[in-house]
Amino acid sequence: MKTINLSDTVYNLCEQNSGLDLVLKEIGFPEIVNPVMRNTAGRFMTLEKGAKLRGVEIEILKNKLQEHGYSVEEGDNNE
Fold first, then answer.
1. Total domains, the chain
2. Domain annotation covers residue 7
3. Is residue 79 part of a domain?
4. 18 to each of 2, 12, 60, how far by Cα in Å?
5. So what's the pLDDT on residue 61?
């Protein structure tokens, strides 16, 4: 199972997990499939921040990621 840390940047997560961008688009982050957005805002935006910004509840985000085979961690990833 792939591990997703909600405090990691969207850019790093998408670079490390092929296909995650499509999962995030399905969850409610349509701009994530745009390479320009991922390479700019995605470099500082975490999934936690993005969820708050888009009005997506963290529990729903975690459940959807788990449905797609990801293990979800919260908290500081020491970056």
1. 1
2. yes
3. no
4. 11, 11, 21
5. 95
Q: Is position 78 within any domain?
A: no
Nearest to 42 by CA among 20, 4, 14: 14
Alpha carbon distance 2, 72 (integer Å): 9
Domain coverage including residue 42: 2-73
CATH code of the domain in which 59 resides = 1.10.3910.10
Local confidence band at 74 (pLDDT 50, 70, 90 cut-offs): confident
**Looking at the whole model, is its pTM more than 0.70?**
yes
Element (DSSP H or E) covering residue 66: helix 58-67
How many beta carbons lie within 10 A of that of residue 12, not counting itself? 15
